[in-house]
Amino acid sequence: MTKITTQIALWADRLRDISALGLHFSGNSYDQTRYRAVQDIAMEMYALASGETLEEVEPLRAPLFSRPTPLTVGDAAVIDSAGRILLMQRSDDHKWALPGGALEVGETPAAGVVREAFEETGVRCQPVALVGVFDSRLCGLISRHQMYAFIFLCRPVGDIPAHFHCDETLDTGWFAEEALPEAEAMHPGHLGRIPEAFRVWRGDPRAYFDRDAG
Predict the structure, then answer these.
(1) Do 15 and 102 fall into the same domain?
(2) Which residues, 6 or more positions from 126, have their beta carbon under 8 angstroms from its beta carbon?
(3) Which partner for 154 in 70, 85, 125, 181 could form a disulfide, CB atoms 3.0-4.6 Å apart?
(4) CA angle 175, 179, 183 (to 5 degrees)
């Protein structure tokens, strides 16, 4: 593919992802119709980028364009030189959590967690190691749908903002490993992942992954 067709294919994939998830979650006919229109546009763009006809692309509608994969999310375990980890207090449930969120088509998982950390805390950071990949079904996350969570060890860079405002964030704080918020004050699934982040921070290079769903 040329640079232009590669970009068109990426846009098509982003629209595919939006339409597939929209059709999966939407419960009213108005939204369903609009997401199907987005899906049609994604297929037309894919055909244009690949040089295929719409008739040749149509068989991909059910297995590819209409099927959302497990949601992918990412969290930044930002630990400073004093061994304190950055947490944000969520505005939806007032629980403390690692900064993070849904990864977007077109960005790497590492870039996604850096973006999320900045958006939710105002702290710029640099990823230094993969802590692990966690399955929502096995790590305590509460979700209607299966999610894969990529956790990256990061270090803060630049100035730390004294004040920060984000609709998703009530507060931010730096916590030593032995002085984390109480378990009931932590967002489900996060408290169990923080020790893995400190393990990697101490120099263990092994990334965590779930071996079996049981």
Answers:
(1) no
(2) 114, 154, 155, 157
(3) 125
(4) 100
pTM, to two decimals:
0.79
* pLDDT > 80? residue 188: yes
Strand 208-209 versus strand 96-97 pairing type = unpaired
User: Is-contact 15 35, C-beta < 8 A?
Assistant: no
Phi and psi at 204, nearest 5°, equal -75, 115
Please report, to the nearest 10 degrees, the dihedral formed by the alpha carbons of residues 82, 164, 109, 60 taken in order. 160
Helices (H), 51-174: 54-57, 109-121
CA 159 to chain centroid, in Å, comes to 25
* Residue 30 and residue 110 in one domain: no
Instruction: Tell me phi and psi for residue 35, to 5 degrees.
Output: -70, -30
- Tokens 């802590």 appear where? 131
